[in-house]
Write a structure and sequence with these properties.
It is a single chain. By secondary structure, the chain is mainly β. The protein has 2 domains: about 150 residues, 5 Propeller (Tachylectin-2, Chain A), CATH 2.115.10; about 120 residues. Helix content is about 5%, strand content about 50%. The protein has 2 helices and 23 strands. Strands 15, 16, 17, 18, 19 and 23 form a 6-stranded antiparallel beta sheet that branches. Strand 2 and strand 3 form a beta hairpin. The chain is globular and about 45 Å long. Bound molecules: beta-D-mannopyranose (BMA). Beta-D-mannopyranose binds next to strand 6.
Length: about 325
């Protein structure tokens, strides 16, 4: 049992939240949320935002800011649109990008959900400039989403963390590839907990795993079903550096959840859904960008060291019956 669970405040919301809403968009939009994030070489923060229009379908649009908080310059048109003619899996839109800079490729890997007739799948595109994209199409078929590429090969293979849904639930898996197109050696990395747990209905990767000397820090979302609907919250786990399918530590309580009105009310209430972060030049301050209530975009900061300290104190190896 986890008794005396600490309500440590690890994430501080920015007082100017939400930082981006549909009203800021240069063209009509219903909602902007769940952005991927990266820091460009000149220090600019780039968010690749999911934009839902009034058909109900989504595309991706880049917003850039010098300080990562204010004065966003938003592309005047969609940056990456669904292309169902050439990529039929994008028929009902593209959603929830995760961005990883991959030095070996000299490019950013954008891994996103393509919403096909067969359900949501994982698609990959590479870009150097967030203007032109080299699409790989769907790399992991439905039902699968919440995926990100790790920034370098491990023992000669690329690594993807993702969330397939099977008859036994929605858990986090790790898969390997030699060429980014063909994925195999699938391994179950982290399971939903059961019963009353906050992460008992579904879990999925939030922002891309962060490499630390102790392992890959994984920020993940967990879903609980209640009589009033679902609640999306955020928890922490640490994955082995060389074998990321091995979870070393998993936090008990959630570390971030919907509290503010913009997180509690919106198109889908009670959702915080991070898809990206940037690390400040101090190497410790983490800015976590998240969709709030499937309606707008907000940001919260945390100390990477404090997150790891917390996990070492309050986390435990998974695998025991929970
Ligand atoms: C998930 C995804 C997210 C969304 C969340 C809450 O399944 O579809 O895009 O933010 O549900 O609606």
């Amino acid at each position: 049992m986890y008794i005396n669970v600490h309500n440590d405040v690890l994430f501080q919301r920015y007082e100017g939240n939400p930082i981006l809403t549909a009203a800021d968009w240069p063209y009509p939009a219903n909602a902007v949320f769940n952005p991927g994030a990266t820091r460009l070489p000149d220090g600019t923060t780039l968010l690749l935002c999911r934009v839902e229009d009034r058909t109900g379908m989504s595309h991706l649009c880049a917003a850039r800011s010098k300080d990562g908080l204010t004065d966003w310059a938003i592309d005047p048109e969609p940056t990456l649109r669904p292309d169902p003619e050439r990529y039929p899996e994008e028929l009902w839109g593209i959603e929830d990008p995760r961005i990883t800079y991959v030095p070996e490729l000299n490019a950013y890997a954008v891994v996103y959900t393509s919403y096909s007739r067969g359900g949501p799948g994982v698609s990959l595109a590479l870009t150097e400039d967030f203007k032109t994209f080299k699409r790989y199409g769907v790399v992991l078929p439905p039902e699968d989403k919440d995926a990100a590429l790790l920034p370098h090969k491990i023992q000669g293979r690329w690594v993807m963390v993702h969330r397939p849904v099977g008859p036994m639930g929605a858990h986090i898996w790790v898969s390997y590839s030699h060429d980014l197109r063909h994925w195999g050696e699938q391994r179950l990395a982290l399971e939903t907990r059961r019963g009353g747990w906050w992460d008992s209905k579904r879990i999925g990767l939030a922002s891309p795993p962060i490499e630390t000397p102790e392992g890959w820090l994984m920020i993940y979302h967990g879903v609980r079903q209640t009589v009033a609907g679902t609640i999306y919250r955020v928890g922490l786990a640490l994955l082995d550096r060389e074998r990321p399918e091995r979870c070393l530590l998993r936090g008990g309580p959630w570390v971030f959840g919907p509290e503010e009105p913009y997180e509690r009310f919106g198109d889908v209430p009670n959702v915080v859904f991070p898809c990206g972060h940037v690390l400040e030049p101090d190497g410790d301050t983490l800015r976590l960008y998240y969709g709030a209530a499937d309606t707008c975009i907000a940001v919260a900061t945390a100390s990477l060291k404090a997150l790891l300290r917390w996990l070492k104190r309050h986390g435990r190896p998974p695998g025991r019956p929970e």
